[in-house]
């Protein structure tokens, strides 16, 4: 009868979960997604207002305060996006009751469209967070009033995406009405100090374009391709490995736990089973918080049994405040979900028992069994995944540089929009992995290894993320220019080729630099490189001989100002040439002069910032290599030449 009792208890637990989900108010996944989308819409509109306030403010203190408020909202928006990601897969199970009771469902694309607005908001923050002030001459006259009109129209578009209550469309908020402040942009800025103003306006226009864009139809094709996959391909190592690890951990924990105490041996499998994650996680950190949570919950249970020895009902009621406390632990950064659940179960197993002997004796056995189970889990984890998180973070850093190299190379190759978007998506994916493994490496103990340089990896992640944003902005600007120059005369296309050459030169330099950093970060040590070089008897790496020149360290890093100056000169000739061609009578299609100026200026801003981020990335890579080789002198150019001479 024991299996039937276990099945009945499990069914009772499932019923309790469903009741807790519906009573007193239903917390369906659809309701959670709908509420998150509503809060995200409010979050985005508030940040737009704060960024616009900081941009138009004459007081530096007021602008700084607005940026600080916007950063707090940006952090809360990332949590809301995590909530969307968590609950959206569960919405498919709730479509049937929504159809039966005719409730209003949530559009799946709404959260994706709100998330796609983040790139424009990050660009606006990039401008207002920089300490370089906007020239007052650019904000003179009625520019501020025009910007407020644009802000109201953008906010109206965001509310339309989120299906929020909105006023009727007035002539001032008509999307098709031209903006006076944008129409006055007829010349390329003379100095780099004016570029942030133009880039901010470009981000506002980009935000409005995203809000009014139609949902992409590519997902249907991707879904059809995924259905044609063989079921055998689903049985890959990423799905089999977690099941194998869990099975071995549970079996070994219960075996060793039964050898210690046969009546209570199965409790050793409990800490392994709860909060088991299929993905890789910080093993030692999770084991630590599970052990602490179990001990805290067990101590609370023993104290409750001692205080309420003769009152069984009160003992059960004493679990309610502990459940509340455990929920706080689950949401804390120190304990997380694993620690909070362990604390709750630790108290339940003591206070929820009767006629099982003295609670203190069971508590001691329970703690010992917990440590047996956690030790088995750590041992199995080390056997199947012996690679340290620090080494994986280093490998992921190299992969991020390779993805950056591919992304930059596509800009010079005139790739299609789909290819550029796919490369940017790949770069974002590697950066997310880098962030995850960096946090895991920071949490794991160093033991006899050298300490992990967490601060440097964190700075590298931020700089690479900014670089990815700037490349994405460049892609949007090039796309807008392409729309303006699609059906223009051959003279216009010839004029635009000069700008293409500048961008191609810059992206090639960035690509070569990223390729060099990819090779450098893959090095095990500088001593190993010297030994490999000595065995190959290759001396062509000598910089003075000039046999292996590395152009990547001479353009994007050392001369970003010169590149920007040349680019702005070509942009002026482009704008003047296009406008002259149009005035000469060759008006196949009307050219939007403000769009051309705005896009070219936005590209200029990206060129300037890419140069700065490149120099910062070089310094951080040098610091990483130096921390891994403390007794060696680090010269990245020299190291790159040695690597290229070794593998050529």
Automatic annotation (TrEMBL):
For this UniProt record, the keywords arranged alphabetically read as follows: Cell membrane, Coiled coil, Membrane, Signal, Transmembrane, Transmembrane helix
- Mitochondrion as a keyword of this entry, yes or no, is no
Integral membrane bound transporter domain ranges (all copies):
252-380
The species this protein was found in: Arabidopsis arenosa (Sand rock-cress)
Q: What is its main location?
A: membrane
The UniProt entry, under Pfam families, shows: FUSC_2
Q: Where is the signal peptide?
A: 1-31
Descriptive protein name: Integral membrane bound transporter domain-containing protein
Q: How does it sit in the membrane?
A: Multi-pass membrane protein
């Amino acid at each position: 009868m024991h299996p039937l009792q276990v099945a009945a208890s499990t069914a009772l637990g499932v019923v309790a979960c469903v009741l807790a989900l519906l009573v007193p108010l239903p917390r369906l996944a659809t309701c959670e997604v709908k509420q998150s989308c509503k809060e995200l819409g409010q979050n985005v509109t508030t940040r737009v207002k704060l960024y616009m306030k900081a941009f138009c403010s004459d007081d530096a203190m007021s602008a700084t305060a607005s940026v600080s408020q916007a950063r707090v909202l940006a952090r809360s928006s990332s949590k809301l996006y995590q909530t969307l990601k968590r609950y959206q897969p569960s919405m498919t199970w709730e479509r049937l009751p929504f159809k039966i009771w005719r409730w209003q469902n949530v559009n799946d694309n709404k959260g994706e469209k709100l998330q796609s607005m983040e790139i424009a908001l990050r660009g606006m923050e990039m401008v207002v967070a920089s300490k370089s002030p906007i020239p007052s001459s650019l904000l003179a006259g009625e520019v501020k009033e025009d910007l407020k009109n644009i802000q109201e129209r953008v906010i109206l578009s965001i509310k339309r995406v989120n299906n929020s209550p909105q006023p009727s469309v007035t002539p001032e908020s008509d999307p098709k009405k031209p903006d006076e402040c944008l129409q006055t942009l007829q010349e390329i800025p003379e100095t780099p100090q004016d570029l942030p103003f133009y880039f901010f306006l470009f981000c506002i226009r980009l935000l409005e374009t995203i809000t009014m864009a139609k949902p992409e139809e590519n997902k249907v094709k991707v879904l059809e391709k995924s259905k044609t996959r063989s079921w055998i391909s689903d049985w890959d190592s990423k799905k089999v490995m977690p099941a194998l690890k869990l099975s071995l951990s549970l079996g070994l924990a219960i075996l060793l736990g039964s050898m210690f105490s046969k009546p209570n041996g199965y409790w050793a499998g409990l800490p392994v089973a709860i909060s088991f994650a299929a993905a890789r996680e910080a093993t030692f950190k999770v084991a630590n918080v599970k052990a602490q949570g179990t001990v805290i919950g067990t101590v609370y249970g023993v104290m409750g049994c001692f205080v309420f020895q003769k009152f069984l009902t009160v003992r059960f009621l004493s679990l309610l405040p502990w459940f509340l406390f455990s929920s706080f632990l689950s949401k804390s950064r120190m304990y997380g979900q694993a620690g909070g659940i362990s604390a709750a179960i630790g108290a339940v197993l003591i206070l929820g028992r009767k006629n099982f002997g003295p609670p203190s004796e069971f508590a001691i056995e329970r703690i010992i069994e917990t440590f047996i189970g956690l030790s088995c889990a750590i041992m199995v984890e080390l056997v199947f995944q012996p690679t340290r998180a620090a080494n994986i973070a280093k490998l992921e850093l190299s992969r991020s540089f390779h993805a950056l190299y591919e992304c930059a190379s596509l800009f010079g190759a005139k790739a299609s929009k789909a290819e550029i978007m796919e490369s940017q998506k790949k770069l974002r994916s590697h950066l997310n992995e880098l962030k995850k493994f960096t946090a895991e490496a920071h949490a794991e103990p160093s033991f006899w290894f050298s300490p992990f340089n967490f601060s440097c990896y964190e700075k590298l992640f931020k700089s690479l993320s900014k670089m990815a944003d700037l490349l994405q902005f460049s892609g949007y600007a090039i796309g807008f220019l392409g729309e303006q120059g699609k059906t223009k005369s051959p003279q216009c296309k010839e004029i635009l080729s000069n700008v293409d050459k500048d961008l191609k030169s810059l992206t090639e330099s960035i690509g070569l630099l990223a390729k060099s950093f990819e090779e450098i970060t893959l090095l095990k040590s500088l001593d190993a490189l010297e030994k490999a070089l000595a065995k190959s008897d290759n001396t062509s790496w000598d910089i003075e001989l000039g046999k292996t020149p590395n152009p990547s360290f001479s353009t994007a890093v050392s001369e970003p100002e010169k590149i920007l100056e040349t680019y702005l000169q070509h942009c002026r000739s482009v704008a003047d040439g296009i406008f002259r061609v149009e005035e000469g009578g060759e008006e196949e299609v009307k050219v939007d002069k403000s769009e051309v100026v705005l896009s070219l200026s936005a590209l200029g801003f990206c060129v300037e910032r890419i140069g700065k981020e490149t120099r910062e990335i070089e310094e951080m890579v040098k610091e990483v290599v130096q921390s891994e080789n403390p007794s060696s002198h680090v010269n990245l150019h020299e190291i790159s030449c040695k690597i290229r001479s070794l593998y050529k």
